[in-house]
Here is the input.
Amino acid sequence: MSEIVGYARVSSVGQSLDVQLDKLNGVGCTRIYSEKRSGKQADNRPELQACLQFLRDGDTLVISRLDRMARSVLDLAKIAELLRRKGVVLRVLDQSIDTSTPEGKLMFSLLASFAEFENDIRAERQADGIAKAKQKGVAFGRKRALTKDQCLRIRTLRLEEKFSVAQLAERFNVGVATVYRVLQEPA
Here is the structure.
């Protein structure tokens, strides 16, 4: 038997869920998940995760406004795709969206397209920024544990003085894996 499931969220403890809960009860929700947490990341909202996990094929998820479920178009698109795969209808009361209708499906298709476009643009800008920083000599990643001179010294001690890997690691205050990597690098 399908259920009408509600989800309500406010950002801080001082805010009230009453208005949202009244709306959700008013449309006949048989189960309501609610929480007082920031909406920045869906993964950090246990009640939303429990709600999404509970939903089954044929169920309807009802929220008062889109921003109660997701704070970014990308986040919303991910949740909408999960609901689509599970066969769950989404109703957004204040924005009159219902994915059981062709118009509602169109709206979510548009949102998903915008999210993908936004993500592509962000990735392009990030790649451009990284390329420009590299041109300016900015080094990315973790700082190397050993200088070139130290690497040369490790190879010399290993080959000429027969130091063990453990001795080299202790002497240069690095892990044995670092010593092995230095020994495998071309001189």
Q: What stands out?
A: The mean pLDDT is 88. DSSP finds eight helices and five strands in the chain.
